[in-house]
């Protein structure tokens, strides 16, 4: 891919991200003008608009961007780790483990911090459990890891359904919104932004290794790459990104699956381009989806995970259809 095309791609993604943030700041149950939102960013707006932009909309948009970027980067890493274009961040059961742990905390009447800690612990524990079972007494293979993740995800889904059935009626709405993704209380983007920046820096430094590993473990080993250790690093990075995303906003699907596909169609398979482009595209997509969730039926809010699925399902079907057509041409 030429430098000119790379520059055009990133310029387009930066424009998309800027437009997504602008829409997030000016639209909602109380619309404000673009000039007022710019004034609020510089501290020159009225007290009401200043609070609306700086305390509510901007932190929420930044959290959405960071989580979308994390999910997209985790999707790229999982597809390299499993060498499967259908791999996505939740394939290792992290969303199921987080859901079970968080719902248990909600049933016990715990507060927000305890629920966050429970979700994070459940996500990491589920991911480690999948890895331990897939590893067994020998080395794991991508197919074995994928199958183990799918089976345990089904078990977590059954446990989640049981917990919902046993929960008091007054808790069900909050539980369901969390399971479908909810940014209503996502006003602290710092953790997700720091992790996203760290993963992008590390990923760019290791991009050549990712390129080699994506072509096969044997070729990577021949070229001198420590395959086993590098796979562990990819696994840990993807699991941490997914766990923090689930902890922050709940379960949001399709971003980690669809965004890497779209980026690879445009940018090719060089991870020096794929990783940062996926982060920008995934973050922008989630900001747009969250803005729609806030505005389509304002003042009521829709679960953002339902909107990402509504966008992702037809888009993924189109991509699959194009793949089949190209295969038989």
Describe it.
The chain is an all-alpha fold and 329 residues long. The protein has 14 helices and no strands. Helix 8 (190-205) packs antiparallel against helix 11 and helix 12 packs across helix 13 (271-295).
The global form is: globular
- Summed up, the helix count is 14
Q: Tell me the structural class.
A: mainly alpha
| The CATH C-level class name | Mainly Alpha
Count of discrete structural domains: 1
Tell me roughly what share of residues is in helical segments: over 70%
Please outline the helices and strands.
Layout: H1 3-26, H2 34-41, H3 47-82, H4 94-107, H5 112-135, H6 142-166, H7 169-179, H8 190-205, H9 207-213, H10 217-222, H11 227-249, H12 255-267, H13 271-295, H14 304-328
Helix pairs in contact: 1-3, 1-13, 2-3, 3-8, 3-11, 3-12, 3-13, 4-5, 4-6, 4-7, 5-6, 5-11, 8-11, 8-13, 12-13, 12-14, 13-14
